[in-house]
Amino acid sequence: MADVSTLDLRLHGEPIGTLTNVGGDRTLLAFRDAYIDDRDRPVLSLGFKDRLGELMTDFRPTRTRVLPFFSNLLPEGHLRSYLAERAGLSPVREFFLLWALGPDLPGAVSIAPSDGEAWPPAAGQDGASPRREHSRLAGPLRFSLAGVQLKFSAVNESTGGLTIPAEGVGGSWIVKLPSSRFPSVPENEFSMLSLARLVGIDVPRIRLLDLDAIGNLPEGLGAIAGQALAIERFDRAPDGGRVHIEDFAQVFGVYPEDKYKKASLRNIASVIAVEGSQADIAELIRRLTFSMLIGNADMHLKNWSLIYPDRRSARLSPAYDLLSTVAYLPDRNAALTVSRSKRFDDFSRDELEHLAAKARLPATLVLESARETVALFHQHWRTEKANLPLPGSVVRAIDDHVASVPIARD
Questions:
Q1: Within this chain, do residues 310 and 278 fall inside the same structural domain, yes or no?
Q2: Averaged pLDDT of the chain
Q3: Which end of the chain is more exposed for a tag (fewer CB within 10 A), N or C?
């Protein structure tokens, strides 16, 4: 077998670099000279810029893992294990996971073998028998949607339902399946995203679907029941093209398992202050305030993303993964520290003023955006909570939680 395998790294369909397995399960990133020399190059990640804003080009090999930017393109937890098992891979061998899932990654990144070798790789490279495993690659596999929850990329059907592509590549919608652990998670997220839209937050198109309206669901998912949440992908263009995105774990070079650590909302706000617009700052504060009001304790680094609509300028992406988690796991803390505290009962006007000062955000814009969000939340929650597809237990949990958040009373 060959000791060296190389994957081509493409951005918007153009080759910009390589990922090379150099032996000993080590992987090395190298950018192409043409990408390095292009002063108008499309942005792959803010995390690959140095303090002067120049492209970083000197990388040390990583062992077993790939660099955090690429690791964050891969799914986590049960979803990673499920896809790795179907590909006959160890879930920790990230170079080979990228090889298997590279055709359909989040954003405008795609990865494929540089010599055109099809999956599976040459026998022995990944510790599995490719001939034996090849049949297990049939069906919805060749995609990667970062995160833990079981979800698949899907395409619209004329009947109004969705179908998961037979080869697992393509699709402009994400289907998030019901949780086997917590009841009504899709309904909860649908409701919170619907409410977020009413308070002025940028939210993709969403819908709830019965499971029998989803075609080509793969086998081996276990017993699932209830409805699924479908979200239109904002990293896919109407013409089928790709729009580049990256989450803040990628921006900060943090591995997925550290998504609750290593950075804060103040760090995110500092990036938006430099890279974004006044509209992005207002959207950041709206989304932060809304998440604190609903008791969303899971807004970690991977649930905040940038989008590059012109391939170079970073903007805050549309909202996603807005969920009232206190309905399932009562928690006094948000996922990330805001400025000094991550406690819900510390989220006040004073905490926002501190955030604005430290992140160099316009204080008036921050406070006014929060005030408007609180007012709109109270207005729409009061009128809509009886109409949203929420169990009474979730409604009561949110009502009890809101009363404990200082900004809700300011």
A1: yes
A2: 89
A3: N
Alpha-carbon distance 171 to 141, whole Å?
13
The reply to whether 261 and 399 lie within a common domain is yes
Q: What is the pLDDT of residue 226?
A: 83
Place of tokens 């406070």: 367
Rg for the chain, CA atoms, rounded: 22
Residues in a beta bridge with 333: 343
Residue indicated by tokens 């010599």: 115
Percent of the chain whose predicted confidence (pLDDT) is above 90: 70
Residue type, 370: A
Rounded Cα distance, 70 and 170, in Å: 19
Contact of 250 with 44, CB cutoff 8 Å: no
Does residue 344 contact residue 401 with C-beta atoms inside 8 Å? yes
288 domain residue, yes or no: yes
- Residue 122 maps to a domain: no
Catalytic residue among 8, 104, 247, 298: 298
Residue 346 is encoded by which pair of tokens? 């510390």
pLDDT of residue 224: 75
Q: In 79-220, at which residue ranges do the beta strands (DSSP E only) sit?
A: 109-113, 151-156, 162-163, 173-176, 206-210, 214-215
Band the pLDDT of 161: cuts 50, 70, 90.
confident
218-240 pLDDT, tens digit each: 766 666 778 999 999 999 998 88
Domain of residue 335: give its range.
244-408
235 is catalytic: no
- Do 272 and 374 lie in one domain? The reply is yes
CATH number, residue 315: 1.10.1070.20
Does residue 131 belong to any structural domain of this protein? no
- Is residue 145 in a domain? no
Q: Is the same domain home to 209 and 271?
A: no
- Together in a domain, 192 and 75: no
Could you give the residue ranges of the DSSP H alpha helices within 174-314?
A: 185-198, 248-251, 265-275, 278-294
Strand ranges across the sheet with 5-11: 62-63, 26-31, 14-21, 5-11, 109-113
Spatial distance between the Cα atoms of 318 and 284, rounded to a whole number of angstroms: 10
